[in-house]
Amino acid sequence: MDLLSKLRDRSATVAVVGLGYAGLPLALSFADAGFRVLGIDVDPERVRRLNAGQSHVEDVRPERLQAHIAAGRFRASADYADLAEADTATISVPTPLGPGHLPDLSFVERAVDGIAPVLRRGRGREQLIVLESTTYPGTTDELVRPRLERGGLRAGEDFYLGFAPERIDPGGTTSGGLTFRQVPKLVAGATPRCLEVATALYAAIVDRVVPVSSLKTAEMAKLVENAFRMVNVGFANEVALWCDQLGLDVWEVIDAAATKPFGFMPHYPGPGLGGHCIPVDPYYLVWKLKTLDYPARFIELAGEINRAMPPFVVSKVQGALERHGRPLRGSRVLVLGAAYKRDVADVRESPSLDVIGLLVEHGALVEYHDPHVPSVTVRLSERALA
């Protein structure tokens, strides 16, 4: 039976490489659809806990995970060799930034290098490899494809290759309550046949698959989604700075503007920008455009404004205390919320940690409360540590 038929009748074994905030919900969605799912993660402790039915992701309830384990629809492994049994492998690993806001694709490279040796040979045994990790336009074709083809196999002939960017919303607080299935899925393939197979895979778990013309188009679309959010939050934060200078209530101003039923979409200010995607991913586009000697001015300006918000928040705290005759140094300050958004335990890039660090550097006695985050680690500047 060919792969397309196995995907349509759910007899395929589906693998997900990387079982974090994006990968685990994806893996369980495949299991919900009736596939046998293999999860690969390089963290042996995470693998052990998952196989024991313990979920580390808020959006995946332990009961759901345990039901799939009991039914034989899900198991986790730290061994890439197990991928030889899989008909598809979706890569869902982090794409962080290195020093200087430069892309760090080491996780993607390790995942691809783990998959390449177990790619199956032979007609009728073709596998589908899909990259979901957010990255710069050209990554799938220029980095993933050559590494998979080193052994002599060819994309579109001996295996199928696609890109389908993740659209996970941890906690579901900004997606209007949409379920995983209700969020449309962008899909691209290295060849028309690759696109057809990748579309069949995702059609099993989402209501609407949106095919696009090329791998680069899908990669770019994901970055545009995140850059849109980053730039608009940056604008809202600058509006907050303007209103502070003008003595106006920024919340009232934005709510007043939002009464216009056309031509305006409200975004609201905050202490900065957090999460793994929005403050990080747009810089992949910045880097790519710099290789073409072209600036991404909106992204860089928005990033500058958003990074200025934690110091602004601390200055407002300091000013409020001084108006009551108290210095910030020695004052007890309670920070409500450590995660980057409500109802999640994710502290990646959280501006709350920057606020806490700056308060500590100013001599405040800081405590925080977040029911989802039992402990935090903050980085202090070299000046504060001296």
Number of β-strand runs: 12
Q: What is the gyration radius calculated from CA atoms?
A: 23 Å
The description of the largest β-sheet is:
8 strands, mixed
Helical fraction: 40-55%
Task: Specify the number of helices.
Answer: 14
- Helix and strand succession? HEHEHHEEEEHEHEEHEHHHHHEHEH
- Indicate the low-confidence ranges by residue numbers: none
Straight-line N-to-C gap: 67 Å
Structural commentary:
The chain has helices spanning 3-8, 23-32, 44-51, 62-70, 106-115, 139-149, 192-203, 215-246, 250-257, 282-291, 297-307, 309-323, 351-361, 382-385; strands spanning 13-17, 36-40, 74-77, 88-91, 97-98, 102-103, 128-131, 160-163, 185-189, 209-211, 332-336, 365-369. It is globular. Helix content is 41%, strand content 12%. Helix 12 packs across helix 13. By secondary structure, it is α/β, with parallel strands linked by helices. The chain is built from 14 helices and twelve strands. 40% of the residues are buried.
